[in-house]
Amino acid sequence: MPTIDQVAARARRALIPPPRLRLSDWIEDHVQLPEGVSAQPGPVQLWPFQREIADAIGDPDLERVTLVKPVRVGFTTLLTSALASFVANEPAPILCLLPAEADCRDYMVSDVEPIFAASRTVADALGDDREEGERNTLLSRRFPGGSLKVVAAKAPRNLRRHNVRILFIDEADGMEATAEGSPILLAERRTLSFPDRKIVLGSTPVHEETSHVLRAYAQSDARIFEVPCPSCGAFAEIQWDQIVWDDDAPETARWKCPHCRDEIPEARKPAMVAAGQWRATRPQIKGHAGFRLNALVSLHVNASWARLAAEFIGAKDDPTTLQTFVNTILGQGWRGEGDELDDEALSERGEAFGLELVPAEVLALTVGCDVQHDRLELTFLGWSEDGTAHVLGHRVIWGQWDDEGTWTDLDTLLKQTFRHELGGRIGIDAAAVDAGDGTTMHRVTAFCQPRTRRKVLAIKGAPGNRPMIERAGSKTKTGARLWIVGVDTLKTLIFARLSRGASIRLSAELPRVWHEQVASERAVMRYRRGQPVRSFERIPGRRAEALDCVVYAFAARQILNPNWDQRRQELAQAAPLARPAAPVLQSSWMKR
Q1: How would you list the strands of the sheet with 469-471, edge to edge?
Q2: Do the Cβ atoms of 488 and 372 come closer than 8 Å?
């Protein structure tokens, strides 16, 4: 018979909850990666820097987890594994918020479904969906005690119907405010009825001044991942300015310790990362864990220092590719450049080339056409194989927008060919004509539709973080098809290139007013529905036709996929190579 002391000891032990299994351990014990999802199928093996992130997501004392992430650090697998843990261990209403519906479908089909099916514990927890009222759909899963729904930020109405305890937000910087406000704030409000809610927000940052994830990280305990130097033992975060390599030899890339200045070769990285640790730079913040990573600590084969150095060398001279490197590899926000252009400086950059004789390196031509009520304005851009844009010239067709002669003149101009330095003649490969004015839209689409095979496109500009060009989802009232141009995206690209003097060359034949019009807008920060938005505004007193034309010509370039070698060969002939004649089909039906 137990003594009173033994009974008391048992009672005390009963009041002490069993030690909680860390989420990182559970993931490695229960989550499987199938073939097709991972290059290394089998049980998930978390990298050292992933473990504390996973444990923070599973920590009930942390309400929020924020991750500033680059690519190549396995966040998608970590996110899906954390979802699996909640399904199996803490059934609850769960919501995943992604930027667009296509992202939602791809995530469910490519990651959630195969990983959940391959992980026996999760598959058992999901149970059978055939009971009445429990049927699954593509973007939702129901299971005993909870549900999982994946929702697009572009459709905020989908958020109204859900109250959730667990909220995962991925690629937050790809989300824009809607008519109902910030989708991120709307989603967070759906968690307010749960005192034990969990909000996990991760994203690759885009623009520093408007980044959702950087703003969230600034409100957290701001952890950084530090590794020990093999030479001096001091801990430091590996940063890009500490990666060095010999001239023209990125394969020699190595890390220079900021403490002892020794240069550490790539071969030492796995051991350094294995001994690394997270350090909170704002430990006074409680309940919100923030993590900031860059790809320099990734153990992915495509994230070696040598590979990243080679990528940097290829990206550094073009603001577009450099921003991608800064965002996706370094996990940093891009600082706005080219907020306002200097038209005087632009006019001094003119070079001796133009439409009279197109430079040898130009192998494709695009045109952007801005439609005014009394004229059409066109800017001609030539493209080299390395992506450099040559502004070759600007033309104005005077005439009323509803006059048939105006459009006949435009058709004639778009059919024109130009002498080329290689000996042949070059024609226009694609043209984008502005149909954004409601008054002229029908006339523009009527002109462009029968010329679609010549890649003459009717376009309409749209602000915000959009693709450079994409087909409109629906036709106009007259049945015409428009292309939507992301004008802010393209202006950001063009301003950055022009301000750096990189990748855009200007003809000396451009009129002075053209430079004034290209510099007619400035990038500004405004708050819309409580969220910072970077956009472009007109400088008072200036016209913007030339800027619009350049934007449209850049958009037209996106639909081309030239065969550069073939084009070079054609232009090197005294006359363009003859195209093979189409076969003549004989049909008795035609004789009726």
Answers
A1: 350-351, 504-507, 389-398, 375-383, 364-372, 430-434, 456-462, 483-486, 469-471
A2: no
Question: What are phi and psi for residue 502, nearest 5 degrees?
Answer: -110, 135
Domains of the chain from N-terminus onward: 12-328 (3.40.50.300), 343-561 (3.30.420)
pLDDT tens, position by position, 336-362: 655 678 899 899 999 999 999 999 999
End-to-end CA distance of the chain: 111
* pLDDT tens by residue, 391-425: 999 999 999 999 999 999 999 999 999 999 999 99
Q: How far apart are CA 460 and CA 471, in angstroms?
A: 10
Query: What pLDDT is attached to residue 341?
Result: 87
Tell me if 68 sits within 8 A of 292, measured CB to CB.
yes
Which pLDDT band, with edges at 50, 70 and 90, does 128 fall under?
low
Are the CB atoms for 169 and 202 separated by under 8 Å? yes
Pairing relationship of beta strands 64-68 and 198-203 according to DSSP bridges: parallel
Top pLDDT among 317 and 537 is at 537
User: For all residues of the chain together, what is the average pLDDT?
Assistant: 86
Task: At 274, list the tokens.
Answer: 């294995």
Report yes or no: 164 and 94 within 8 Å, Cβ to Cβ: yes
Cβ-count burial of 65 within 10 angstroms (0-12 exposed, 13-18 middle, 19+ buried)? buried
| Selection from 432, 403, 425, 427 nearest residue 415 by Cα | 427
